[in-house]
């Protein structure tokens, strides 16, 4: 009996100390958090250094390493202030969750509008963020292409070729990888055009496609490894920028095939309003994202195999990207991300249906 | 027997510091195990039972239980037989680089599981060194349930070896010598003298390896093809639910796994106690 009351007391003490620790910890973070010096705007006086955190997804690592240098110079020139940018990369959905659960990002640059929207739902981003920057807050875009082995031995030139029996397809799982949803939707958009909107036939088309999938990796990078390093499959459905990176790393082994129709993949950027308010980094965060649309930055994005959203600069890269491809847009074709997620990827929705017997 | 018990009880009160150490134990246990586990229940508190039941009995999820549990069971069986052999070699024989082998046993503990997963996948894929050999007889390892089992064997082996090794080390060779003198065969000695001694330890190893294999994500996810109804493991479904921001479903399935792991470990403990009782009684 004595022992029991002792343990109960200890449990209480443990809970209290945990609460205390959390308090101290948040306190520390609060005090030590990066933030701009409010005063010090006077001319000639150097402004205190400002720090911002950009929470992004996996394939943008190299792009932002280069862009951050570009922006640091730009900010130094226009404002005379040093800016330090912390980058964080991981799966897009995981990154969104980390921000929701307390990673104090100033800006998010994620793969899916839906992931940014989850952060909004958690109350950290203001409503209407999609309109905050031009082109639906997507400074660069990409699309879904086929990566095939050199000389395209199986003659895979369009979506209708890869649903043929005997073709092995590698693509990540749309249920675990947000980016993989573009792959599914691109194929669906093709089938939709092919069958004039007959949903049953489109579903059958996707069923054939996913019956050909031999490995359904949990993420995009994993799928690339499966195809490129482990030599599985005849075709990898990949983001254009990822496909270019694979070719750059393994010259002469692969080819990019752009299908006749694909989807306009728009990675979204947004300011995390609640955090910039707390850090006092509103101005620099806004400039950081706005500068992504500048000519210099657009060219940098093109060099990193993202399609610049500025049409004139995109044309400069016409020898890199296949610009003849018809690109459907998620809003026009699927009525936006929320509707598309609901219709295709929710539990028991079309993606689950094509796999169930 | 009785006097021994009394002595032990008296000793407890004589040794100082029980209160303090017990307090620290409970505190640590609360901080690291109990409170996080309670938070699982807390997340579930706004889910109805019908919703919970639907989440855990969904057709695709049920298929993953089948894959996870059957592969984990096979892996644990392999681990016990193979682990006994390994522990035997390490305790009974002297050979060069023995300490190196001894150290290697724990590598699966130290290695980041993703590294192990990627390495195993590459090695056992039909283009890899070992996988190519099996491909000739039309056996695919990576991206199938065989691959999943291999990854589970890899992460489970230290549990078995490290459970059995100390028991074998303490085992007095005199019993075996006596049995030999009395004319028992090597096999009979193993079954009647050695096996009963190491059985409780082997069971512990089996339980730990099995429980760990069910929950293993990092190494298995790379080598599994993740094809629904075929090669998806349960932890992957949890990740998939999280990716859809469906915390309730993820936690529901997590709770099922916690319960299973607990039942396995508890069952093994009960079994062990029973074996010990029989051993003492005879």
Describe the structure in your own words.
The complex is a heterodimer of chains A (357) and B (282). In chain A, the strands form two sheets. In chain A, strands 4, 5, 6, 7, 8, 9, 11 and 12 form an eight-stranded mixed sheet that branches. Chain A is globular and about 65 Å long. Helix content of chain A is 49%, strand content 15%. Chain A contains 17 helices and twelve strands. Chain B has helices at residues 2-14, 18-44, 49-57, 59-92, 98-104, 107-110, 113-124, 129-136, 145-170, 173-181, 186-215, 220-223, 234-243, 247-281. In chain B, helix 2 crosses helix 14 (247-281). Chain A binds chain B through residues 3, 6-7, 10-11, 13-15, 17-18, 91, 93-94, 97, 118, 173, 175-178, 213-218, 222, 225-226, 229-232, 345-347, 352, 355-357, and chain B through 19, 22-23, 26-27, 30-31, 34-35, 58-60, 118, 121-122, 125-128, 142-143, 221-222, 225-229, 236, 239-240, 242-246, 249. Chain B: The chain crosses the membrane at residues 20-45, 65-91, 103-121, 141-161, 247-275. Chain B: InterPro entries: CysT_permease (IPR011865), MetI-like (IPR000515), MetI-like_sf (IPR035906), Sulph_transpt2 (IPR005667). Chain B: It is a multi-pass membrane protein. Chain B: Part of the ABC transporter complex (TC 3.A.1.6.1) involved in sulfate/thiosulfate import.
């Amino acid at each position: 009996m004595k022992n029991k009351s002792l343990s109960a007391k200890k449990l209480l003490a443990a809970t209290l100390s945990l609460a205390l620790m959390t308090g101290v910890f948040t306190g520390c973070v609060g005090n030590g958090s990066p933030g701009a010096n409010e005063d010090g705007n006077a001319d000639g006086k150097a402004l205190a250094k400002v720090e911002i955190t950009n929470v992004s997804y996996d394939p943008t690592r190299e792009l932002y390493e280069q862009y951050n240098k570009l922006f640091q110079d730009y900010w130094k020139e226009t404002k005379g202030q040093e800016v330090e940018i912390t980058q964080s990369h991981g799966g897009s959905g995981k990154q969104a969750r980390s921000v929701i659960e307390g990673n104090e990002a100033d800006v998010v640059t994620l793969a899916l509008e839906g992931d940014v929207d989850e952060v909004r739902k958690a109350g950290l981003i203001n409503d209407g963020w999609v309109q905050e920057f031009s082109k639906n807050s997507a400074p660069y875009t990409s699309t879904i292409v086929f990566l095939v082995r050199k000389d395209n031995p199986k003659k895979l030139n369009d979506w209708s070729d890869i649903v043929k029996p005997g073709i092995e397809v590698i693509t990540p799982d749309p249920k675990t990888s947000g980016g993989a949803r573009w792959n599914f939707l691109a194929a669906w958009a093709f089938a939709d055009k092919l069958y004039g909107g007959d949903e049953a036939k489109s579903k059958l088309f996707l069923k054939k496609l996913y019956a050909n999938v031999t490995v359904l990796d949990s993420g995009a990078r994993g799928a690339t490894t499966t195809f490129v390093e482990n030599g599985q499959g005849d075709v990898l459905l990949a983001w254009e920028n990822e496909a270019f990176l694979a070719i750059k790393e393994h010259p002469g082994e692969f080819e990019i095939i752009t299908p006749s129709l694909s989807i306009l993949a728009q990675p979204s950027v947004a300011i995390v309003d609640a955090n910039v308010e707390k850090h006092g980094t509103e101005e620099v965060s806004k400039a950081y994202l706005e500068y992504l649309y500048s000519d210099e930055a657009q060219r940098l994005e093109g060099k990193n195999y993202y399609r610049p959203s500025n049409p004139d600069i995109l044309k400069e890269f016409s020898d890199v990207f296949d610009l003849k491809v018809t690109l459907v847009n998620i809003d026009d074709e699927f009525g936006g991300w929320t509707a598309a997620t609901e219709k295709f990827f929710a539990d028991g929705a079309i993606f689950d249906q094509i796999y169930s017997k | 027997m009785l006097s021994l018990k009394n002595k032990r009880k008296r000793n407890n009160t004589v040794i100082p510091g029980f209160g303090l150490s017990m307090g620290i134990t409970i505190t640590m246990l609360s901080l690291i195990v109990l409170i996080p586990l309670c938070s699982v229940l807390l997340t579930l508190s706004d889910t109805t039972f019908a919703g919970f039941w639907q989440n855990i009995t969904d057709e695709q999820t049920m298929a993953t239980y089948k894959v996870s549990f059957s592969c984990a069971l096979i892996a644990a069986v392999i681990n016990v037989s193979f682990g006994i052999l390994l522990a035997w070699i390490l305790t009974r024989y002297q050979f060069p680089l023995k300490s190196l082998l001894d150290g290697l046993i724990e590598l699966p503990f130290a290695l980041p599981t993703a590294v192990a997963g990627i390495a195993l996948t590459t090695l056992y894929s039909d283009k890899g060194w070992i996988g190519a050999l099996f491909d000739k007889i039309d056996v695919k390892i990576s991206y199938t349930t065989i691959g999943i089992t291999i990854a589970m064997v890899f992460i489970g082996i230290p549990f078995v070896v490290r459970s059995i090794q100390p028991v074998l080390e303490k085992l007095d060779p005199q019993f075996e010598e006596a049995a030999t003198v009395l004319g028992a065969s090597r096999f009979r000695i193993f079954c009647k003298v050695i096996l009963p001694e190491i059985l409780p330890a082997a069971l512990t190893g089996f339980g730990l390896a099995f429980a760990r294999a069910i929950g293993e994500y990092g190494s298995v996810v790379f080598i599994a093809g993740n094809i629904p109804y075929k090669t998806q493991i349960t932890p992957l479904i949890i990740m998939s639910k999280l990716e859809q921001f469906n915390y309730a479903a993820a936690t529901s399935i997590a709770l099922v796994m916690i319960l299973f792991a607990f039942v396995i470990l508890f069952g093994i403990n009960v079994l062990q106690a029973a074996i010990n009782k029989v051993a003492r009684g005879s």
